């Protein structure tokens, strides 16, 4: 069964550094998302992306964040200058058109020191 | 913002017992999804609900979309060890409003 994949599984970075988290959504899906989950808390929406542009973003998704679909398969989340409070699990999700069901990847654990 | 509260926060049960958990909101959702999350993993979709009053099953799991559209329920029958994990409800308001609002989660533990 097709799955959303994410790399790396764990990223350690120093405060102020840039990180890029990578995702390969399910191949025929059209809508792409990033969510994050701070340890022990619920999953929070960051951004949705459709037709090569952001369709919605949350308050968390400030100017330090950006997303890109550089080719037909990858979907990336960039954090320009990481802060300690960016430490979390970051999940990519995707869905086909005309359904509501979002499928999540295994996540990237980002640790900012 | 929209808040989804789940109860109970955690459950300790014996293998073979049935489990019930619920999710309530102060605002209306048009779609409810239930996910299970294992430690260090991403949420896995269990059941999707689209209509108020709808009752949907997936194996030993049964979920209901509350009539008021402000709540949803998940039942697991005859629990087994692999049911251990955190169960999250998630709501969508309208198609086109793409973000899922997640609940606070119910942690299920099976006592040997």
Question: Which labels suit this protein?
Answer:
heterodimer; A: 113 residues; mainly beta; 7-stranded mixed beta sheet; 4-stranded antiparallel beta sheet; 11 strands; 50% strand; globular; B: 112 residues; 6-stranded mixed beta sheet; 5-stranded antiparallel beta sheet
The largest β sheet of chain B comes out as:
6 strands, mixed
Q: What best-fitting shape of chain A do the alpha-carbon axes yield?
A: globular
Secondary-structure element pattern of chain B, one letter each: EEEEEEEEEEE
Helix share, percent of chain A = under 10%
**What does the radius of gyration of chain A come to?**
13 Å
> Mind telling me the C-alpha Rg of chain B?
13 Å
Structural class by sheet pairing and helices of chain A:
mainly beta
Tell me, rounded to a whole number, the average pLDDT of chain A: 94
The mean pLDDT of chain B is: 93
Low-confidence stretches of chain A: none
What series of H and E elements makes up the topology of chain A? EEEEEEEEEEE
Percent helix range of chain B:
under 10%
Q: Give the tally of β-strands of chain B.
A: 11
Q: Structural class, from secondary structure content of chain B?
A: mainly beta
Distance between the termini of chain A: 37 Å
Distance from N terminus to C terminus of chain B (CA atoms, Å) equals 40 Å
Give the total of beta strands of chain A: 11
Helix segment tally of chain B: 0
- Beta-sheet strand percentage of chain A? over 45%
Question: Quick summary of this structure?
Answer:
Chain A has 113 residues and is mainly beta.
